[in-house]
Design the sequence.
């Protein structure tokens, strides 16, 4: 359960070997078996696993991503930094994605012309430190297969209808980079402060499957 | 080593038949354009095989939907992060 998913390898293996893996064993069972093996070999203890996961998830949630976006909306210099070097920008807010693997953060900015959406077609790579654990639909074969073939259709199912002229960019997290969408600031929020703006930004807007509305 | 630069046309190689890779099947053997150079990262294929090879260049590569899925596909772009070993020059 990290930004860099430990199960990448196994999960990807089935992608072109035998697609039915997920039906034959749930992820939870597989993780339990893996931990049992590691314990048998004396490599880790259950307590260590629990402690590590708890430490990682403490403070990991979409409010981090929302803070990042709100700051970018009110501070153009910060936005520039976020788009150029995501890791440096999140450090400014006291956030960190480098728990035990090198993970590079990239922010993709929505504009009047461009809408971004994030997926991991091979497994479920996701910026957990900034968004918390991913929703189950993000990990589903359905979303992963379809958002790279029919992004407009998938977005419409999420209730996001975009101008036909809007350029859509689908970011497939295939390597050591993790993506976050910087949604467009809604009109009518000029008088709101940073904290109030952050409260408008939900998890799905940070994945690109929702827009931000002027009232939460 | 960085073989490619931003704006360069590249073509992805065929999917390897055995072992781990982070080249998705739907992106194999397609033409794209380098959109960003990310720096050096350990190649996932080698790491999964327990090989300690030097890190290699990782690129953001941009693909047009029509190139991936054929004419008649809606217009959009897929951007994936692909290692040097997955790419050939197509400029």
Sequence:
């Amino acid at each position: 359960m990290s930004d860099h998913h430990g199960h990448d390898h196994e999960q990807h293996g089935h992608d072109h070997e035998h697609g039915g893996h997920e039906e034959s064993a749930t992820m939870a069972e597989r993780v339990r078996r893996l931990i049992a093996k590691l314990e048998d070999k004396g490599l880790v203890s259950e307590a260590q696993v629990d402690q590590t996961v708890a430490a990682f998830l403490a403070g990991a949630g979409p409010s981090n991503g929302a803070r990042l976006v709100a700051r970018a909306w009110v501070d153009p210099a910060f936005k520039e930094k976020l788009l150029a070097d995501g890791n440096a920008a999140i450090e400014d807010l006291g956030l960190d994605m480098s728990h035990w693997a090198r993970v590079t953060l990239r922010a993709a900015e929505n504009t009047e012309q461009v809408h971004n959406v994030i997926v991991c077609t091979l497994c479920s790579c996701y910026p957990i430190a900034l968004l918390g654990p991913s929703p189950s639909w993000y990990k589903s074969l359905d979303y992963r297969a379809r958002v790279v073939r029919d992004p407009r259709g998938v977005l419409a199912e999420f209730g996001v209808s975009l101008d036909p002229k809007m350029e859509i960019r689908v970011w497939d997290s295939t390597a050591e980079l993790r993506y976050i969408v910087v949604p467009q600031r809604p009109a009518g929020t000029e008088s709101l402060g940073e904290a109030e703006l952050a409260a408008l930004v939900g998890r799905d807007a940070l994945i690109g499957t929702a827009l931000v509305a002027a009232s939460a | 080593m960085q073989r490619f630069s931003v704006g360069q046309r590249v073509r992805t190689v065929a999917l390897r038949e055995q072992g781990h890779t982070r080249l998705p099947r739907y992106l194999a053997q397609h033409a794209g354009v380098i959109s960003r150079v990310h720096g050096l990262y350990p190649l996932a294929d080698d790491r999964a095989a327990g090989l300690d090879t030097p890190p290699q260049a990782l690129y953001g590569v941009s693909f047009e939907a029509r190139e991936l899925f054929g004419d008649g596909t809606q217009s959009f772009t897929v951007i994936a992060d692909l290692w040097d070993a997955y790419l050939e020059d197509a400029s």
